[in-house]
Amino acid sequence: MTSKKTLIFQGEMASSSAHSRISNLQNHLSPLEANNKLRSLVKISPQVSEALSNGRAVVALESTIISHGMPYPQNLQTAKEVESIVRENGAVPATIAILNGVPCIGLSEEELERLASLGKSVQKTAGRDIAHVVATRGNGATTVSATLFFASMVGIQVFVTGGIGGVHRHANHTMDISSDLTALGRTPIAVISAGVKSILDIPKTLEYLETQEVYVAAYKSDEFPAFFTEKSGCKAPSRVNSPEECARVIGKCSLCLRISSFSKVFMHFDPLPP
């Protein structure tokens, strides 16, 4: 015979399970609430937090270029110069990294110094690696895909980087396709870069971006750039000719994203001449 206590316990378990399912459903129906929970898991610098609260421009910056792109102290100097350029143009820089397992959105001078001095001992962290680095309380330098994830989480709408990953040559045999491309396809952020790395298969990369519904434009050029060179031999899908036109395109894409899953923005600026 089933006891009264057992029935009560089973009823409580069913109630708890139902409450959990309802909570998960609410998170799907109310992504803002779920996103707020995620935001509580990251550390946002006071400057970035204030700028986001007041509707000021914030520019996300990746950190792999700092840890893996060049030696110390050149990497620290470059990181400071990039942040300074962002400030001089009226925005707040938000360099993103994981330190002691804590995702940091915007680094202090001490944190920037630490990341730069640790160099390649810091784990290069793509989107797939975030959970491991956080769980093991490690240090992670974010790639394009991980930076996009954290920037989107806190509401940053513009991300500036150097070159992104893409479809590697002979990918039809190796399936070597950068997670940067899928991250671009699912993240509603405007990414400003100098194109994909020149060693990649640029035509296939452009095809993949089209499949992911990513809007791609070159600035004052009809040709798609290749990171450190202005010419890749590939025509850019679209062209924009002024900062105002860039802003209008980003604004229209943001409006469409609020209505449905529409184009993400990916604009390429030609590399600076030597």
Features:
hydrolase activity, acting on glycosyl bonds; 12 helices; metal-binding; metal ion binding; pseudouridylate synthase activity; PsuG; 47% helix; alpha/beta; eleven-stranded mixed beta sheet
Task: Briefly summarize what is shown.
With 274 residues, the protein is of the alpha/beta class. It is globular, with a radius of gyration of 21 Å.
Can you characterise this structure?
The chain is an alpha/beta fold. It is 47% helix and 16% strand. It is built from twelve helices and eleven strands. Strands 1, 2, 3, 4, 5, 6, 7, 8, 9, 10 and 11 form an eleven-stranded mixed sheet that branches. β5 (123-125), α7 and β6 form a beta-alpha-beta unit. α1 (4-29) crosses α2, α5 (74-88) runs antiparallel to α6 (109-118) and α8 packs parallel to α10. Residues 25-32 and 257-265 have low confidence and may be disordered. Keywords: Metal-binding. GO terms for molecular function: hydrolase activity, acting on glycosyl bonds; metal ion binding; pseudouridylate synthase activity. InterPro entries: PsuG.
Q: Kindly state the number of beta strands.
A: 11
**Estimated structural class:** alpha/beta
Report the radius of gyration as a whole number of Å.
21 Å
Report the order of strands and helices.
Answer: HHEHEHHEEHEHEHEHHEHEEHE
Question: The biggest beta sheet, please?
Answer: 11 strands, mixed
Question: Helicity level, as a percent range?
Answer: 40-55%
The count of helical stretches stands at 12
Mean pLDDT: 83
- Overall geometry: globular
CA(first)-CA(last) distance: 85 Å
Low-confidence region ranges: 25-32, 257-265
Strand content: 15-25%
GO molecular function: hydrolase activity, acting on glycosyl bonds; metal ion binding; pseudouridylate synthase activity
Protein name: Indigoidine synthase A-like
Keywords: Metal-binding
